[in-house]
Amino acid sequence: MSPPVMSPSPSPLLTASTTTSIPPPSLTPQLTNLSNTSNIVPPVTTELSLIQINSDRPSAVPSPSTTSPPSSSSSSTTILLAVLCSVVTLAGVAGIYFFVYRNTAFISDYEASIVASETPCRRSSFAATMGASHYEDITTTTIEINPKQLAYVKVLGIGSMCQVWLANWSPNPAMDTTSVAVKRLLPKRRNDHDVCTFLGDTRLLAVLRHPNIVAVLGLAWHTKVHIEVVLEYMDGGNLRQVLSTTNPLSMGWLDSKQEIAMDVVDALVYLHQEEIVHQKLAAETVLIHTGRRGIGAKLGNCGSMYRQLRPTSSSQRTTLSIFSPKLSPDEAHRQLQRRKWMAPEVLRGNEPTRAADMYAFGVLLSVLDTHDDPFKREALDEALILQRVSLGDLRPTLSLLCPPFIHDIAQRCLDVSPELRPTALVVAGWLRTPGLCSPSFVSTSVVHTRRGSLPLSASSSSYNGSLPSLSMGRVPSKAEAAYNVL
């Protein structure tokens, strides 16, 4: 009897595989063949392969909704960023251009800024703004200087309206370079009103011709509101700088002070003959130069001068109580110091006259003698000093080293009454008296003024080591007690 034929039992692994994961119909024959072969792949591997195949089948079909939208969104973002970058770049370029154009004076390399950013300007564009008379005077009395011929070196001084530069001027390659002073408006002052005022002052200065007044060499026209006045350069600085580096013993009247005083009064003689009032005579406006004949002086800052043809309006008068709130502390201090050179009647609100210039010349003699600011030794408040000067109760003082005749000239110029002050022409004659500043000088002459003969005191006729009888200190007044209380 033949043994019964038993069908082989399926493998446990294969059974588990078929029960847990039913393969697709197309793969059934392959699994059957694989189970009957001797080199069968391990069941675990087969199961993992089937699971991997089954899990990959659904992802084989691409989804159209996951590819096209991101491409459209990124393209829009790129375009938007490109537009924004272009706008920001254009705005930045425009901002830089206007900043450089409006603030060329603040750039250290001044020459590069004016050449790169400014357009040459014609004088004719100012004719309508300034008026025909101003325009004609400037064009006929000054030459036009190409700004490219000026090489700026350093700043010499800054005021409330203008600044002055030292520059080298080369008219052409065949000529030597000349040192000049270039005066121009501050950037904040470059508007139509201040430009017209600046050119009006320049017009008056340009027509003056005197060896003791700083001359205008020409004008450099950059733009409509950027104009420079080229002046002759004074290598010695101003009188204040000279006096601050010397003392009354090292710088005497015989050496240079008498020459400076004569140069200044000669300039005043010329101005007063032209009916022009300087108004701002001070140690800072007297410029010093050295030459073959030694030290000399010229009047500068003549832009404030005006022709004394008619009285000024009340709004143009300088009064003691007016202080502009727009001035910086430095500007306010300079203005306060300048008021100490003003005549009493000007401090009270009257118009400046030629007699006011002579009062300032008397203050100049005091400063030349002491090397100090006027009223520096007075232990009083600044405002109180000006008030007492305006009332005629306080005058500048001179030292014991001052020659007696110089002392008396200063006394005459500092008279509280404008009618009693000598003219510039009379003082010019006095200063040319031979041996005026000599310690052994003895005068038997009579000092003549416009009001008659006023003899000098006996003690002032010879130098005896003491002050003359004419006191240069405080003048007694009825208000003395009240001021002492204050």
TrEMBL record:
<dbReference type="GO" id="GO:0005524">
    <property type="term" value="F:ATP binding"/>
</dbReference>
<dbReference type="InterPro" id="IPR011009">
    <property type="entry name" value="Kinase-like_dom_sf"/>
</dbReference>
<dbReference type="GO" id="GO:0004674">
    <property type="term" value="F:protein serine/threonine kinase activity"/>
</dbReference>
<feature type="region of interest" description="Disordered">
    <location>
        <begin position="56"/>
        <end position="75"/>
    </location>
</feature>
<keyword id="KW-0472">Membrane</keyword>
<feature type="compositionally biased region" description="Pro residues">
    <location>
        <begin position="1"/>
        <end position="11"/>
    </location>
</feature>
<keyword id="KW-0812">Transmembrane</keyword>
<keyword id="KW-1133">Transmembrane helix</keyword>
<dbReference type="InterPro" id="IPR051681">
    <property type="entry name" value="Ser/Thr_Kinases-Pseudokinases"/>
</dbReference>
<protein>
    <recommendedName>
        <fullName>Protein kinase domain-containing protein</fullName>
    </recommendedName>
</protein>
<dbReference type="InterPro" id="IPR001245">
    <property type="entry name" value="Ser-Thr/Tyr_kinase_cat_dom"/>
</dbReference>
<dbReference type="Pfam" id="PF07714">
    <property type="entry name" value="PK_Tyr_Ser-Thr"/>
</dbReference>
<feature type="region of interest" description="Disordered">
    <location>
        <begin position="1"/>
        <end position="38"/>
    </location>
</feature>
<feature type="compositionally biased region" description="Low complexity">
    <location>
        <begin position="12"/>
        <end position="21"/>
    </location>
</feature>
<feature type="transmembrane region" description="Helical">
    <location>
        <begin position="79"/>
        <end position="100"/>
    </location>
</feature>
<feature type="domain" description="Protein kinase">
    <location>
        <begin position="150"/>
        <end position="436"/>
    </location>
</feature>
<feature type="compositionally biased region" description="Low complexity">
    <location>
        <begin position="62"/>
        <end position="75"/>
    </location>
</feature>
<dbReference type="InterPro" id="IPR000719">
    <property type="entry name" value="Prot_kinase_dom"/>
</dbReference>
